[in-house]
Every structure is written in structure tokens, then in C-alpha cells.
């Protein structure tokens, strides 16, 4: 069990308190096998109030297992909190499903308090790389690489794939997380939270002035992340749940049914006092 994940789930349970949580209405899974596009990379867990939680499905055998129904028996009508707890302890598809439940309950709570995050100015969490800055990126994502290097920043990418390691035009790929230790800013995808590698990443980012956690899976309550050193959360705010789930199941683009948001620690702190009062009443 990782400290960030444990703290996040504990905070989620505390904020839920004794109030009833909407039960699971459905699990929406993209077509299997993976179609090779970004629109087939996420599932969505839907609660009875329409809250959606997204989770990456390309780790382990998650997509095939969830699409075949092997990892979600008796899901409809279930309490999402025990499902969320599996994110901490169970690998594979049940971990993926648990993370989706964490995000779905988080969206339910944010809607309950009336909180709506600001629209993101870009796809990199408003990181604003500057010429001469050293930026770290966790995971090689070519479109994001171009956004960083085009602004004149020096980029180091942390990867798990040994075949990608080495020098590339405009950036370097390494397998050593210690390479993040002298980065001024760090961009990390929410998959590091899903697979419990975020603790190790952040332990090597103590010199970074800004750390952005981004991606469709970055839809959870942010307190535990901000306390661990993340400064910005850049996720996906679903605006049309019905449209998104229909497109997702068909493997079609679903971006028009959502928008990218950005949430900074300072902005959340200003809303947190009222949020706590509403969430625990």
C-alpha cells in the first residue's frame, strides 16, 4: 500500500462520512482488443447520479478482463467504496476498476459541493516551460514532448521501456528516476497514481518548483496529492456523460463530451474550508 493512495482513499471515506453514496449504474469499456487509439485507452464507471470516473485500461490484462466481464461480477447496484478499496491492494483489472471508482465518487462529492474547476489553458497542466528550464516528464508522450521543447526548455523523460532510453532530438530518455532530481518542473501522467509509482516519482522531485499530474485519470480529490508535493492537477471534466459513454463503448472520439481542467493547490485551498463543511454534513 502506498502512502499517497492510502491517504487519498482515507480522505475520500472521511468526506463521504455517513451520507449515502450513489450505487454503481454501469461500467463502460472500450472495444477489445485495443484499437490503437487514445479513445480506446480508458473505461468509465458510472454511478446512479450520473457521476463518471475514468481509468486507464492498458495495464496488465485490464481491457480484456473488464470487456469480458471477468473482473466485474455483480457490479451493477454495488456500493462503489469497497470497489475503490481494491485499488490499494489488488493488481490487474480490479485495481483499474477500483481507481475508476475513486474518480467516480470524487466527482460525486465535487458535484455535491458545487465545485467546478477552471478550464485548462493547454495539455500540460499550465506548466509554462521557459527557455533554459529543465523539465522532467514521466512517460514518453510525443505530443507533449513537442509542447515542452518548442518553448526552449531542456527535457528529460523517465521511462520504463529500455528500448526508448538514450538521446533523442531535443530531449533525453532515461530509466533512472534520479534524473528528475535537478528538474525545475515535472509533468507526470495519472497512470503513475493508478499503478502506485507516484510515491517514488515524487521522492525524486524535491527540487521541482512545480509538479503537474495530468490525464483523464486525474479526477480524484486533490488533498493527498497536494500534500505529497503535486502543485497542479490537470484532468478531464465530463460535461456530457451520456455522449461520452456512448462514444467510449464504440471506440469513437469522446473529447467533445468533456473538457480539460486545471486545479492548483492554492485555488483548492481557498475552496477547501467550505468543501469540508458540505462534504461531511
The succession of helices and strands, N to C, reads HEEEHHHEEHEEEEHHEHEEHEH
Give the mean pLDDT: 92
Q: Treating each run of at least 4 consecutive H or I residues as one helix, how many helices?
A: 10
Span of the ends, CA to CA? 29 Å
Explained architecture:
There is one protein chain. With 281 residues, this protein is of the alpha/beta class. It has a domain at 3-116 and 241-251 and 271-279: Enolase-like, domain 1 (2-Layer Sandwich), CATH 3.30.390. 35% of the residues lie in helices and 21% in strands. It has helices spanning 3-16, 62-67, 80-89, 93-113, 142-149, 191-194, 198-203, 223-228, 241-249, 265-279, and strands at 24-28, 42-47, 52-56, 118-119, 134-138, 154-158, 166-168, 171-174, 185-189, 210-214, 232-234, 236-238, 258-264. The strands form 2 sheets. Strands 4, 5, 6, 7, 8, 9, 10, 11, 12 and 13 form a 10-stranded mixed beta sheet that branches. Strands 1-2-3 form a 3-stranded antiparallel beta sheet. A hairpin with a 4-residue loop joins β2 and β3. The longest helix is centred in the middle third of the chain and has 21 residues, at 93-113. The chain is globular, with a radius of gyration of 18 Å. The chain starts with a helix and ends with a helix.
In short:
With 281 residues, the protein is an alpha/beta fold.
Present the secondary structure layout.
Layout: H1 3-16, E1 24-28, E2 42-47, E3 52-56, H2 62-67, H3 80-89, H4 93-113, E4 118-119, E5 134-138, H5 142-149, E6 154-158, E7 166-168, E8 171-174, E9 185-189, H6 191-194, H7 198-203, E10 210-214, H8 223-228, E11 232-234, E12 236-238, H9 241-249, E13 258-264, H10 265-279
Parallel strand pairs: 5-6, 5-9, 6-8, 9-10, 10-11
Antiparallel strand pairs: 1-2, 2-3, 4-13, 7-8, 11-13, 12-13
Helix pairs in contact: 1-3, 1-4, 3-4, 4-10
